[in-house]
UniProtKB/TrEMBL annotation:
SUPFAM superfamilies, per the entry: P-loop containing nucleoside triphosphate hydrolases (SSF52540)
Limits of the ABC transporter domain: 3-231
InterPro entries with a match to the protein in the record: AAA+_ATPase, ABC_transporter-like_ATP-bd, ABC_transporter-like_CS, ABC_Transporter_VariousFunc, P-loop_NTPase
UniProt keyword terms in alphabetical order: ATP-binding, Nucleotide-binding, Transport
Lineage, top ranks: Bacteria, Bacillati, Bacillota, Bacilli, Lactobacillales
Domain of life (superkingdom): Bacteria
Name this protein carries in UniProt: ABC transporter ATP-binding protein
Molecular function terms from GO: ATP binding; ATP hydrolysis activity
Species of the source: Enterococcus silesiacus
Amino acid sequence: MKLVLENVSKSFEGKQVIDHASFTFEKGKIYGLLGRNGAGKTTLFNCISKNLTLDNGMISIEKNGQTEADYENTEIGFVYTTPHLPAFMTAVEFVKFFIDINKDRIKEPKSPQSYLTSVGIELDDQDRLLKDYSHGMQNKVQMLVSLIVQPPVLLLDEPLTSFDVVAAHEMKEIILKTKSDSIVIFSTHILQLAQDLCDEVVLLHHKKLVAVDPARIHDIDFEKEVVQLLSDDNELATQSMEE
């Protein structure tokens, strides 16, 4: 399975954010999307998830040799930086509701309590209102419901930033298991996280998508090189990371 971006462009109020960007993401890999603030990472995720329409280009999902540009937005799991959860529901109520409306998409459904426990939400907390959860706990629940349906494409916008050390480790393990069923792409400013989790790193710079040579991700100078390239106004310098 592949997620294919071809000449994707998006602008806002005359400002070009993404300009004829192309890339192919494959199942079985975790991709780190790196870029400076305002580079367009969240915009790109919103285009992939169909929250935004493209100005030009095409995004498609390729399965079993068939290419589908008109895919359903339910094919995309999107975990936002800021959780989007119903404040008036408890965690158990919300997960049960999610399971009920997605029962045809869940291969092996479990109880809401089992799901919540699997991401470290203790039984004593599961009947609390989501509005009373910490930011990190809300993020756990948001990530959980995306993982329950095992979407073909999973987008994680700045994951793990609100988690404590133990919770971050638990979430890393869950993300690593997810790549066998999904194309996983996460944006981050934490280069160490990208090195720990990613099979490939992609830079969004100068409105384009540029792959980093996977063999260089664990180089001792990787962080220094990425920082230098993202600070560089020379587009040719960024492209050199592919070589």
